[in-house]
Amino acid sequence: MVFDWDINNIEHIGEQDVEPFEAEEVFDDVHRRPFSAHSGRSGVLGETEVAF
Could you give the CA distance from residue 8 to residue 22 in angstroms, rounded to a whole number? Predict the structure, then answer.
């Protein structure tokens, strides 16, 4: 999967202290879970290689 990050998306995930590489790592998590956000958009929850 190839990600094409624009400044708006980088700033959006940055509000949650998430870096683009971390967001991408979630898609490697075999236990990831999709969800529907309040905005009507989709999201994915999962772990990254370095958990805090």
Answer: 16
Handedness of CA 32, 16, 43, 5 (dihedral sign): negative
Is 42 within 8 Å of 35 (Cβ atoms)? Answer: yes
> Which residues fall within 8 angstroms of residue 30, CB to CB, at 6 or more apart?
none
Confidence of residue 1 (pLDDT cuts 50, 70, 90): confident
pTM exceeding the 0.85 threshold for the entire prediction: no
> What is the phi/psi pair of residue 9, to 5°?
-70, -35
